[in-house]
Amino acid sequence: MTFLHQLFELRKRGPERHDCTAPYDVIFRLPNRHPTVNQFLNSIIAHKDEWGKVHISPGSAYTTVWDLMGYHGKIDSLEYRWGEWVKNYDIFVEKYGNRKIKSATADGGWSLMDYTLLLEDDDMKYEEFGDIDIPADFEFSIKDGRSCIERMHEEKLLTTSEYNSVMTIIDGAEARKYESIKALNNG
Q: What is the DSSP-derived secondary structure letter of residue 36?
């Protein structure tokens, strides 16, 4: 299932739960693969039929709403309801508004949608290869590939040996790609 916003689309990344909610990947549209937090907030608030929170991830180990539940530090969040910001919008925008988003996820359903934003480091570099923005698009592709293989294994379409072989190949491809990106960014 896919939900469309002006800046991005939500692609379901896991099964729907009993309360009709599900996890989603946030896929930013070309040409803006790494919008600012301000641009993202403007896209969210344009949908007056949603409510939830926008969370800022404290690091790459916490990229989903569920990951944040295991975090014991302070998490900056901004609540919205039906096209209005609940409180502290100015403080949130002053702190994060001009920062670029590296990746984002969502979780919810019907009218509730919570978002988790992983922000770019100020010195992060990207190399462009046609329409592919590295590393975000590559990370999504790897994540999608792993997810597909895991589902095939869960549904008994792959044996454990086949699953391990394919995951080893994906791990090797990922390592080679990151080495080439590292070489391009340092070169």
A: B
